From TrEMBL:
<dbReference type="Pfam" id="PF22440">
    <property type="entry name" value="SirC_C"/>
</dbReference>
<dbReference type="InterPro" id="IPR006367">
    <property type="entry name" value="Sirohaem_synthase_N"/>
</dbReference>
<protein>
    <recommendedName>
        <fullName>precorrin-2 dehydrogenase</fullName>
        <ecNumber>1.3.1.76</ecNumber>
    </recommendedName>
</protein>
<dbReference type="InterPro" id="IPR028281">
    <property type="entry name" value="Sirohaem_synthase_central"/>
</dbReference>
<keyword id="KW-0520">NAD</keyword>
<dbReference type="Pfam" id="PF13241">
    <property type="entry name" value="NAD_binding_7"/>
</dbReference>
<keyword id="KW-0560">Oxidoreductase</keyword>
<feature type="domain" description="Siroheme synthase central">
    <location>
        <begin position="118"/>
        <end position="145"/>
    </location>
</feature>
<dbReference type="InterPro" id="IPR036291">
    <property type="entry name" value="NAD(P)-bd_dom_sf"/>
</dbReference>
<dbReference type="GO" id="GO:0004325">
    <property type="term" value="F:ferrochelatase activity"/>
</dbReference>
<comment type="pathway">
    <text>Porphyrin-containing compound metabolism; siroheme biosynthesis; sirohydrochlorin from precorrin-2: step 1/1.</text>
</comment>
<dbReference type="GO" id="GO:0019354">
    <property type="term" value="P:siroheme biosynthetic process"/>
</dbReference>
<keyword id="KW-0627">Porphyrin biosynthesis</keyword>
<dbReference type="GO" id="GO:0043115">
    <property type="term" value="F:precorrin-2 dehydrogenase activity"/>
</dbReference>
<dbReference type="InterPro" id="IPR042518">
    <property type="entry name" value="SirC_C"/>
</dbReference>
<dbReference type="InterPro" id="IPR028161">
    <property type="entry name" value="Met8-like"/>
</dbReference>
<dbReference type="Pfam" id="PF14824">
    <property type="entry name" value="Sirohm_synth_M"/>
</dbReference>
Length: 206
């Protein structure tokens, strides 16, 4: 199957997760980071999910799945590890709802890639369901190449790019700066602001 890669803004969107085990827990952590409005439908919860519930991070329907649970959902994840439950969720979901069946990706209309994040830097790996194990190994390789230093570096790029676009009118200088700040020396720099000022000074003196 050919998938269309996309990043979704789930802030304040209703996401329903069916299941309260470890698989559901992993899915819910990602939804929490995206600031979705999360409802969990399950007779039981893991200890961590129970903590999320007590903290008000999720809504818990302590019950087995029924069709009305997903009536107003924007995104649905069936993670109960039960083929019968997955089938019921699939049958109840509307064509316009985003649906992921954790135990049956072929019957889903979206899948969740393996994700590696360092702050604003986010990289996803997918084998379109062919081998989640390979996707995990590639993610581990990315982690070894793009370490914690990229968290601050990408924050710097964000602020710096915004300043360049607002303050620099010379198109050649703008292009030069936007390219220069992506060079390796800025990744490893201990004073990126000074290095950026030096770039400006160098341009103005040329």
């Amino acid at each position: 199957m050919n998938y269309y890669p996309i990043y979704l803004n789930l802030m304040d969107k209703r996401a329903v997760v069916i299941g309260g085990g470890k698989v559901a827990e992993r899915k819910i952590q990602g939804l929490m980071e995206a600031r979705a409005l999360i409802t969990v439908v399950s007779p039981e919860l893991t200890e961590k999910l129970h903590q999320y519930y007590k903290a008000g991070n999720i809504t818990w329907k302590k019950k087995t799945f029924s069709a009305e649970d997903i009536k107003d959902a924007f995104l649905i994840i069936a993670a109960a590890n039960d083929p019968e439950v997955s089938f019921a969720v699939k049958k109840a979901a509307a064509p316009n709802q985003l649906l992921n069946l954790a135990d049956n990706p072929e019957e889903s209309n979206f899948i969740l890639p393996s994700v590696y994040k360092q702050g604003k830097l986010s990289m996803t790996v997918s084998t379109s369901g062919a081998s989640p194990t390979l996707a995990k190994k590639i993610k581990q390789n990315l982690a070894s190449q793009y370490g914690p230093e990229y968290r601050d570096y990408v924050d710097f790029l964000y602020d710096c790019r915004k300043w360049i676009l607002q303050e620099i009118t010379d198109s050649k200088l703008k292009k030069y700066l936007l390219s220069a700040i992506t060079e390796r020396e800025f990744v490893t720099s201990t004073n990126r602001q000074k290095d950026f000022k030096d770039l400006l000074d160098k341009w103005n003196q040329s």
